[in-house]
Amino acid sequence: TLLKDPKLSSVVLNPHTKSAVKQKAVNDALAKEKMSPITVNLMNLLAENGRLRYTPDIVSAFGKIMSAYRGEVLCTVVTAQPLDDASVTELKSALNGFLAKGEVLKLETKTDPSILGGMIVNIGEKYVDMSTRSKIQKLTKIMRETV
């Protein structure tokens, strides 16, 4: 969120800005946000080594590590139309059956009208395409091969 500030990001991401100026800008911004000393140290280290542009990637990677530590399993479900609450509850119940003991489902739903119907499920390392679009594509391929 710090790099979303246009003034700060222009200073921090400019390769011609001196390291000391970048560190001061980062320290000032972090002081306003009341960040923990560990976060301040990390951001200073990134600024000192010219690596602040990697902050979003680092935050994302750390989030994945913490999710794995907590036993969270990310599941993305894509449907052609938004699911109602009852469907989401039913889906969660079905997906929880695929999890090992101690794992926690972290469900993310997305909509993509181009799949026409059905759903695409991505859970952990597994990918299942049950969309109408993929079924039509398979049938079209079979029909073309037989002609």
Describe this structure in words.
The structure is a single chain. The model has no long low-confidence stretch (mean pLDDT 89). This protein has helices at 6-12, 19-33, 37-48, 55-69, 85-96, 132-146, and strands at 72-79, 104-111, 119-123, 126-129. Helix 2 (19-33) packs antiparallel against helix 3 (37-48). The protein starts with 5 loop residues before the first helix and ends with a helix. It folds into 2 domains: 2-66, Peroxidase, domain 1 (Orthogonal Bundle), CATH 1.10.520.20; 70-146. Helix 5 (85-96) links the parallel strand 1 and strand 2 (104-111). With 147 residues, it is α+β, with helices and mostly antiparallel strands. 8% of the residues are buried.
Helices, strands, pairings?
Elements: H1 6-12, H2 19-33, H3 37-48, H4 55-69, E1 72-79, H5 85-96, E2 104-111, E3 119-123, E4 126-129, H6 132-146
Parallel strand pairs: 1-2
Antiparallel strand pairs: 1-3, 3-4
Number of domains: 2
How much of the sequence is in beta strands? 15-25%
Tally of separate helices: 6
Termini separation:
57 Å
GO molecular function: proton-transporting ATP synthase activity, rotational mechanism
Subcellular location: Membrane
Family: Belongs to the ATPase delta chain family.
Protein name: ATP synthase peripheral stalk subunit OSCP, mitochondrial
Short description:
InterPro entries: ATP_synth_OSCP/delta_N_sf, ATPase_OSCP/d_CS, ATPase_OSCP/dsu. The protein folds into 2 domains: about 1-65, Peroxidase, domain 1, CATH 1.10.520.20; about 70-145.
